[in-house]
Structures are given as structure tokens and as C-alpha cells.
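Async update (no meeting this week)

Hi team, since we skipped the sync, here's where things stand on the single-chain job. The sequence we agreed to prioritize is pasted below, unchanged from the tracker. I ran it this morning and attached the output directly underneath so nobody has to dig for it. Comments welcome in thread, and please keep replies under the output.
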Amino acid sequence: MKHKVTLIPGDGVGPELIDIVKKIVSHLVEIEWEEVEVGEDALKKYGDVLPSNVIESIKKNKVALKGPVTTPIGSGFRSVNVALRQILNLYACVRPCKTYPGINTKYENVDIVIIRENTEDLYAGVEFQPFSEEANYIISKSNGKISKDCAISIKAISPSATRKIAKFAFEYAVKNNRKKVTSVTKANILKYTDGLFFEVCREVAKEYPQIEYEEKLIDNMCMQLVQKPQMYDVLLLPNLYGDIVSDLCAGLVGGLGVAPGANFGDEYALFEAVHGSAPKYKGLNKVNPTALLLSAKMMLEYLGENEAANRLENAIIEVIKEAKVITYDLGGNSKNTEMAEEIIRKLGS
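Output:
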């Protein structure tokens, strides 16, 4: 069956990694790629980091694969990633973190899936500058708790969005034979927002008595993950905590080079690696393609191409386990294009 997928190369090392994924996936299934641009290159060409044709393409094709996109720190344009998630209502971010044989890590038998609410919380980027009209209004209502020169960021948690992500997490657990869902917040301090997240998650958990449910505070959760990650299965978090914990969990299993990700809504799905665009490595063919390849594996599963997805994952596992043709972060000295060719050889064997 031929599929049509929107392809977003991204910035930095994104285009070279996307080329690798296209080449490898072509040995598994037939896909017609519709390529569109976002980020810095799109800004230069079209005057917009997220041109309207990108959204139109994803809405038409329903599925997209995206390379990493640069987001300026502290200034510049807003995150393209956040904008895509909000515009397309991609409310569920799924980031599996799994140990593979041959990867140098301090841990064994880690198999955690982070499920992160993707549209609300502080990560939505609703902010006001110091002395702005909006900031002054909020400060005036704070009963002296906020000083007049503060920048303000809004943390919004709604029952409706929390219910959607909680149901998604429990349905994921049922579908994938997972045993436990752990909800994570800082509800002892943020009693209204994070407290609401816990409250709604508890209600949803009652609908799934076959799945164990527990709650952890974010600081304690980070300690627990470093000490005994094997105790955890599916983690359910608000947006900002989910982003941070997914990087922590990637560190447990070998780093961001092996951390895939996907964003799901009711109508659309967008697949991307967890790592960033790494502009200093652009054109050097050094960056590990595994994370984006495993994201493509998740895409193949979503498209119903389960056999192809399994073949791809198994080929990646074999190459990493043999450790003959792997990138620097995995302990080798091969270019990512050479690692890609080795994966293709495994697919053919």
C-alpha cells in the first residue's frame, strides 16, 4: 500500500537525518513524501517560520515526519514545535525510552513510555513582559506576592485537556499490555493547577481497574527514576514536566540519540526525534540517526505497517549490538551515512 506523508526536513542536522530516514524507509514501504519547509530557512524564503502550506499539507495527509527545528533561546521567534502542536491540537506526546543491547548505559531493562499533555501548562508560552498592561494587572491581583518588575508566565491546566491525555495514557497502556500508569505533578505546592491534574487523572483511572495507578511528585519522581527506573512503566505528565522528564529518561537509556517521539491528536499525527537541531554538527554526518529512525518506526506502526516497523527496529538493534558501524555517541567512529548503509544491509539479510 502506498502512503502519502508530509515531510519537514527542519534545521541544522535535520535535513541530513531526514535523507537517511527516507532512504532506509524506501526499502520497507512505498511512501510519497510531500516536502514543506519550516524554521529558519522558511523565514528567509517566505517571511514566516511556519508558512500556511505546512498546516495545509499535514491536514491533507494526516501524517507528518519532522526533522529537528531550531528554537532561539531567550529571544527570537516562538517555537515551531509548540505552534504545530497547538494549531493541529496534537494533545498527546508519546516518548518511549528503552534500553537496547550494545548501548553504553548504567541501567538495564528500562522500558518507560512518557505520555505528556502537549497543549497547556507553562510550555504553552503564554507570557507577559515586565511593566506590560497584562503583567501589571496580574501583579495588582497578587496581594503583594509578585513584585512590580516581574515578567509573568501563565500556567493553565483544564479538566477537559487533562481528561483527554489521561484517557490516552490508559488506553495506550491497555493496547500495549502495560501494567501501570504513574501520574506526576507538584501538587503539594501548585494545589489548584497540578492538584486539578491529579484529581482528573484519579477519576479516569477508576475506568481502568486492570491498570495500576499511582501518583508521584516531580522532584521525587526524578530521584526515583535515577535510582530504580525499572519500577516504572507509563508516566503521565503535564506539558513542562513531561518535556524535562523525557530528557531524563533518554539519559537512562543512552541519550537523546536513541530517543524517538510522536505527537497525536484526534485527526493528525506528527513524528519527530526528541533531540534538537544541533547546528554545530550540520554537514559533518556525525549525528546518530537512531532517534529519527525509531520515530519513523512509530510512524510505520501508526500507518498499519507493523511488519515493516518491526524489521526496521530489528535492523537498528543488530547494528548497534554489533557495534562495528556506529556513530561517535554510541562509542564508534562511523559517519551516520555509513551507519545507515549498515542498517540497509541488515534489512536485506
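Quick observations from my side:
Residues 159-175 form the longest helix (17 residues).
The first strand starts at residue 2 and ends at 8.
Reply here if anything looks off.
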